[in-house]
Amino acid sequence: MTEQIMQEQAMAKAQVLIEALPYIQRFNRKIIVVKYGGSAMVDENLKKQVIEDCTLLKLVGFKPIIVHGGGKEISKWVGKVGMEPEFVNGLRKTDAATMEVAEMVLNKVNKSLVKLVQELGVNAIGISGKDGGLLKVTKKYSDGQDIGFVGEINEVNPQILFDLLEKDFLPIVCPIGMDSNYETYNINADDAACAIARAVNAEKLAFLTDIAGVYKDFDDPNSLISELTASEARELIESGYIGGGMLPKLSNCIDAIDNGVSRVHILDGRIAHCLLLEIFTNKGIGTAILGDKEDRFYHE
Fold it and tell me: pLDDT digit string (tens) for 73-104?
């Protein structure tokens, strides 16, 4: 490798750091909630990269909170113990036995993430929504049908998260909650991340998914939208362009914006270091949804 090439590579690295500087300044000491799920949870290399991203955010002055799912791992263990999964309107029916498996699996996932953060030299604490009354729920129904121990969040007590952040810990939350009778319920991780982001008045909420972001036309990969306002997102939903699993996710994003979160990001968790690329570069790689009065970062 020639000296000139080495110099050009060094300059490119410096440029990346310079581009990141205004974002580090703007979001220093601000809370960022990261919803971690999808393929990035089952691929060990991707898992390591996501945790590296969150740890770096912590070390440059952000206050990340990770909220993780575990649906694929739960399905695997439900099968291992010989249980047949049952679905109602596309939602897993969670009976008492399935709930027991789900809680064990989610806690196992939770502590594995804590271990990865600790290995990188940052103190992390794993909690569930049951700890400190973080997530209080009521029983959720699907079009009036009973789907078992699936919870709808009706109250968030963020004090335990504020306490952990104040003591310089990185909180990692698994989406399990309790109702008023102290029964345990499984919670959709997207819903949990959105509710927590609202409760802690997060500056950013990032969803790591298995798609690249929001498209004007899902069949056209060139129609990815880099930034859109909450009003524009509503128009997309009303126009019928958005369907499937993106519909509740985008609705969660709008709800978060309406409740004080400045920016929500939808990212492809299958891309290495997607979180850093979205937060620290001008264009990013996913879709950012922002409040109608927020300044756009990226201009075509």
Answer: 888 888 788 887 777 776 778 889 889 999 99
82 token code pair: 């010989």
Rounded to an integer, what distance in angstroms lies between the CA atom of residue 3 and that of residue 6? 5
This prediction has a pTM of 0.88
Give the CA radius of gyration of the chain.
20
Q: Which helix (H) or strand (E) holds 12?
A: helix 3-27
Contact 172, 68 (CB under 8 A): yes
- Kindly report, residue by residue over 141-167, the tens digit of the pLDDT: 888 888 999 999 999 999 999 999 999
* Cα distance between residue 276 and residue 60, in whole Å: 12
